[in-house]
Specification:
- The chain has one domain.
- The protein is 42% helix and 11% strand.
- It is globular.
- The two termini are 23 Å apart.
- By secondary structure, it is α+β, with helices and mostly antiparallel strands.
């Protein structure tokens, strides 16, 4: 499995359902960091088919949170 060759894996979920985390856990794939946009950053899910409708501030918030997790690992 290609994902197992990745040196550091950061999982990002968009809402409280934690779909990405649950899929990786079910497959037994380990990850180094986890970020949930809704729970960790307070960015609410906008609804279906709205993946590109985030504000510039939200994108910057996510970017900073990811960079912080990269630096901590």
């Amino acid at each position: 499995m290609l994902v197992k060759k990745i040196k550091r894996l950061i999982v990002v979920d968009g809402c409280r359902n934690e779909c990405s985390r649950k899929i990786l856990d079910a497959l037994g794939i380990r990850y180094d960091e986890y970020l949930n946009l809704e729970n960790d950053l307070g960015i609410g899910k906008l609804g279906p088919f709205t993946t590109m409708n985030y504000s510039k501030e939200d994108v910057e918030k996510v970017s900073l949170a990811i960079m912080k997790r990269i630096q901590e690992t």
